[in-house]
Amino acid sequence: MKTHAQAVIIGGGLAGCSILYHLAKLGWTDIVLLERDELTSGSTWHAAANIHGLHDHNNTTRIQHYTMTLYKQLEEETGQGCGVFQPGSLYLAQSEEREHQLRLQEAKARLYGLGFHEISHERALELHPLAQFDDVRCIMFEPDGGNVDPSGVTMAYAAGARQRGAQIERFCPVTGTEQQPDGSWIVRTEKGDIHTDWVVNAAGLWGREVAAMAGIELPLQPTEHQYFVTEAMPEIEAIGRRLPSIADRDGEYYFRQEGNGLLIGAYEEDMRFWAEDGTPADFGHELFEDDLDRIMENVMRAIDRVPLAANAGVKRVINGPMIWSPDSSVLFGPVPELKNYFCCTGIIPGFSQSGGFGLLAAQWMIEGEPQYDMFAWDLARFDDWADKAFTRARVRDQYIHRFKIHFPNEERDAGRPVRTRPAYEMQRERGAVFGLNAGWEHPLWFA
Questions:
Q1: Cβ count within 10 A of residue 64
Q2: What is the pLDDT of residues 159-192, one digit of tens each?
Q3: Which site from 27, 29, 187, 344 is most exposed, i.e. has the minimal number of CB atoms within 10 Å?
Q4: For the whole model, what pTM was predicted?
Q5: Measured between alpha carbons, how far is residue 352 from residues 66, 222, 400 in Å?
């Protein structure tokens, strides 16, 4: 194992391997990734791994488009399959507000040259003959939507990095990180120490624990998340082609084809936190006990969409952990109070965004500045005011409202107030409507 390196990436999941690949691609090859278990351990291996290009945030749209186009390039470059399926995605609007949102995204797609356009109900039935769309106001089709293989993508990043000289050490738990007087770092492991210029925390479920080694407390909280795969359905096999996935945000579920069955998942109201006091060090490729009753209300709406699913048995249930930040966006960038310590933790739609964040991390570390404005993702948006109680309340709100339509300048009440000034109660009694800024409550207007 190396004893010196330009950068040490801690975490061998999707994010860590993407950063390793992009650092090597941009010219840093004296780098090493440390993984306490096997690559993909934690939350990467069991992900549904859906991919889509559009997002309400413009720069997120850019990085998702980059990520989706990268996967086939990775396959050609490395010979490692990423399991890319792109039969397209159907986006449904049952409400007027959702229709407005989809039409806004259609306009944005034209701006970025992406495929996303309205189709008729008849065309939707041609694409997905097992579904019914009688209650739908508007249907958009994204031709490039689909899914990938979680392990395949991660291994492709790793292969591309190795081809350029990067090293990966598996079964190498990190036991400490210590900054030296000159700003460099000692990363301590069970296999020995590495002296490095940069530390990258891409530890995913263990992001809190790795951060604590450097004296940092990151506002992160894992939750359980469930989806299940049905037994093979002869009706799907008879179609003889891949069916498009369906994104029914008003129905609060998602599903797509998996083999000759269906994969159905949901973000349920009755959610569950996990590992509130810290992720177990020996957790790896485990899953939690099935609890489909929690998502059954959502599942029944999915079955209403594809009635034949009611006759299919359940082949397997995946109930695994995800790790969230208070606003469900990645905690990304250099830690302000530490030199050369970079974080990339808490990516929820990782398979749509991993390539983009890997590229931006490499640009920021090597060139000093990434190509996009990082305000929405910069971990400096949170400070010690974002304590465990705030994080827990916000993560619950983000999880159960995952598919909610969010509007400009929206203020969310969960976890508030955190910081108040002496005039707060007087202002509240006089009808103040408050906004949140760096944890502080401040009056926006009086009603």
A1: 24
A2: 999 999 999 999 999 999 999 999 999 999 999 9
A3: 27
A4: 0.96
A5: 9, 20, 21
